[in-house]
Amino acid sequence: MITREDIIKPENLVYQKPVLMNDNAMHYCPGCSHGVVHKLIAEVIEEMGMEDKTIGISPVGCAVFMYNYLDIDWQEAAHGRAPAVATAIKRLWPSKLVFTYQGDGDLACIGTAETIHALNRGDNITIIFINNGIYGMTGGQMAPTTLLGMKTATCPEGRDVHLHGYPIKITEIAAQLEGTSYVTRQSVQSVAAIRKAKKAIRKAFENSMSGKGSNLVEIVSTCNAGWKMTPVDANTWMEKNMFPFYPLGDIKDKE
Q: Model-level pTM?
């Protein structure tokens, strides 16, 4: 007779919920990329054995309630100020794994100064940057990363360079800073992409703990609610429109 234990042997296991993720129902929209990235962060922390030595910082935005989902120590920050808070925490507790989790409006607009200066200081922190090209929580407004021609609540005819300027590639800027060690851009729309994203997060966290400098992991993501698309259509749109402007892969890897 085949028992449940036979079925879920390690060699037969396809998926399991990370130990660090609790049973609270997530508030994200169906198809949102945030939940996938949460899972990867939880898995990496667990695999590194850093469960009791990790401090995450989540500011305002869709990720504001991330502390409800991952059973680690958390610190809330004002909108855009997470990198500054991370700097303070890492300097007070250098043995801790310290990371921020931020959206594009938070990181690349409201917190531009904090982001650039924290990365340039080489503070041995990791910034996880979710880029979906829109302000997701506050009503779907245009963000600094909104593509040219992309429609949002505040540019319903599409982003116009003469009115709104160009979208900003904050990750390319970060790669030019002396204090950054590892700068990469990934995605989570497929199994292969998820595996690459997890590997990137692991490398960034390891660099943080090895004292190699600051690290930035951008995840190009969807916001199907803000984009007014189905999850499937949003993934297709992202691949067709976001990836050409925000190409995936490692941008800087200072060994």
A: 0.92
